[in-house]
Amino acid sequence: MNGKQIIMIAGLSGAIAVGLGAFGAHGLAGILAETGRTETFETAVKYHFYHTLALFLIGVLSIVKPQWKSLNFATWSMVFGIIVFSGSLYILSLSGVTWWGAVTPLGGVGFILGWLGLFYSALRNDQIIAD
Q1: pLDDT tens-digit series, residues 57-99
Q2: Is the alpha carbon torsion for 120, 124, 125, 127 positive or negative?
Q3: Closest by alpha carbon to 9, among 89, 64, 81?
C-alpha cells in the first residue's frame, strides 16, 4: 500500500469518526444516556480519531520514505484496531450486548502492534529525514 492510499483511508476514517461523533452527541444522546453508554461511545470516537491521525501520519511518512515497506504492517494493524476496538465499542454502546466488550481488547492489540510496527520501521531504517 502506498502513502496516497493510506492517506485516503485516513480521510475516510476521519469522516466516519466525525459523523459518528456528531451522531452520538446529537442523534443518539438519548439512547446512550438511557443505556449509560455515553462514555463508552466517546471512548470509541476518541480512539478512532487518535488512530486515524496516526494513519494519516504513516501515510505522509510512506510518501517521504517509500522504501519503508514495513509501514504496511503498522497501517493494517491500525486499521484493524479502529475496526475492532472502536467498532466493538460502538456496537456495545448501541446494542447493550455486553459480550462485545470481550472483543474490544483484540482491537487494542491491533493498536499496540501498529505502534510497534511504526517503531520497527524507524529502527530498521536508521535515516529518518535525509538519505
Answers
A1: 999 999 999 999 999 999 999 999 999 999 999 999 998 888 9
A2: positive
A3: 81
